[in-house]
Amino acid sequence: MPLEENTSQGIQALREFSLAIEAGASVGIIGESGAGKTTLAALATGLMKPDSGSIRVDGEELSAPGKTRLRNARIIQLIWQDTAGSVDPRIKAGDIIGEPLSIHGLSGKNEAHDNIAGLLSEVGLPGKLADRYPHELSGGELQRVVIARALAVSPRLLICDEPAASLDAHAKLQVSELLLRLRAERNLALMVIAHDLTLVRRITRELVVMKRGAIVEQGPTEKLTSTPSHPYSQLLIGSDVSGMQAPSPLHAQRSL
Amino acid sequence: MAGWIHESEQASRPMARAGLDAASEMAAAGAELGVANTNFGYDSPRRKHHTLIFAITLAAILLAISLIVPLLPLADPVEPDYDRIAEAPGFEHPLGTDLHGRDELSRVLWAIRTSMIVGVAATGLALTAGMAAATVAVYGGRITDAIFMRTADVFLSFPVVLGAIAIMAVMGPGRRNVFIAIAFFGWPIFARVFRSSLISIREKTYIKAAKVLGAGESRIFFRHVLPNSIPPLISYTAVATGGAILAEAGLSFINLGVQRPDPSLGMMLSESMGQFEPAPWLVIVPGIAVTLMVLIFILIGNSATRALNPRIKKAG
Question: What is the CATH number assigned to the segment(s) B94-313?
């Protein structure tokens, strides 16, 4: 499943950006704030349209005319950085997971309950959580609910924007294990956008270092994190050796 | 792309979440230890909305009374009895009689009926019109939005009562015209409140999340935007109903509302001017009635704000 993007006009959030993701692959995207990581996610999910260039799945243009939103939803799904904000506060967890099922007509009235229970158990949550409102769930539980919602449409690529940003160390570990398991079981391709190098190292096999909308360096995660060649990658990766956060943009700019 | 994720929201969320996480963890710990009550006393469903339930009960009683007034065995509120002018409260007339010898209890109940009907109906009409205008404005594009909202601004520049007086002057006094006047000048505030509510909800991450999940515009509107945009209106609607009741009383007080001999609280107050010393019940009875009615609706408005927010529901 090649996925490609090229934008090269105006104030560029992304430029000369080209990335192909195979089925079941896992790609990490790192870079300072403002590097265009979030724009990348918006483009891939169809929330934004590229000024130029294209996003293709199996050679087919994603923004091709037709029922794009419905079609794209079943190919690429997104786990939002702002997990708590990405769910309707007035809707119970079970119905949150059930919504994509009903949008895409994936289960009838009678099957919906079973499907929701199945998705909950796939992400390691007890069925009784279906009756809870988002504010009654912990950060880790809510993150799993959101993952279950994305899985409901059986996407082929799951983009995770800072999937563990607001989680504690334990929940972080659990979420990364869950993502790894889903990749193996569903042959689900993962694109993990993160500041947290530990997480990226754990989940991904390939790594892309972005700076100001362009790819600076790209390669196997293991190799790139141990011996980064580009000075910017060295800076990003070097600063995170002890598990610290990536450098602030200001700091990065001054140092380069 | 700037609007894709709200910076401020991002900043505030983790803190709020952290607090909730801590609370749920404590609750979970309590459950493991076999502690029966893990809500630490501030999540009692009975205590939660008692003010709101109390206020709604009172409003329901008022509404019930105003609906059944014609069925009650009351004295004629209109027919004068000049043998019994300004009688003090007693066995035959529990709240006394007025300056025309009419039963004060009967008149005040009929007046409450008028106030409730005018207040609720006018507010309902203003609410419906305001919501419709805001929805059209928000979804109709920039020019439609400008037209609707500038119109609303023009209306907002009149105080409701003053605008209503102008309408009454043109259309003539009477109960039906009071209702029209109040609704006519009441809708813009509803439109404003609902519009800002719609706009802020439309920018929420969960709306974008629904788009990414493939939801269509109408599904997003009816399932996510509308239910989340209405709560801010509910409190305001309750308070505005109180305001409409007050406006009706005010217009009747200056003789632009309900016409004689039909009773209305404002008119009863204006008729009893100067009578406080000889017949205090003529001032006290309608005065308390109008004050209580307005207070009840303000109370509903204030307590509804807390009760409707799922986030403060817990601590309410």
Answer: 1.10.3720.10
Rounded to whole angstroms, the Cα distance separating A179 from A42 reads 21
Query: Is the pLDDT score of A94 beyond 90?
Result: yes
Kindly list the domain boundaries of chain B, sorted by start residue: 94-313
Integer-rounded Cα radius of gyration of chain B? 25
Topology at the third CATH level for domain A1-66+156-256: Rossmann fold (3.40.50)
Decide if B227 touches A, using CB distance below 8 A: yes
Q: Would you list the domain boundaries of chain A? A: 1-66+156-256, 76-154
Rounded CA-CA distance A178/A185 in Å is: 10
Residue B103 has pLDDT above 50, yes or no: yes
Which chain A residues have a beta carbon less than 8 Å from that of B310?
89-90, 133, 135
Could you tell me which residues of chain A have a Cβ less than 8 Å from any Cβ in chain B?
13, 38-39, 42, 45-48, 69-70, 72-74, 77-78, 80-82, 84-90, 99-100, 103-104, 133, 135-139, 149-150, 153, 166
Which of A69, A133, A135 faces B214 most closely, judged by CB atoms?
A: A69
| Cβ contact B310–A133 (<8 Å) | yes
Strand order through the sheet with A206-211: A76-79, A157-161, A189-193, A26-31, A206-211, A214-220
Over residues A70-78, the mean pLDDT reads 88
Q: Which range is most confident: A232-236, B137-141, B302-306?
A: B137-141
Average pLDDT, chain A: 83
Here the tokens at position A129 are 């959580």
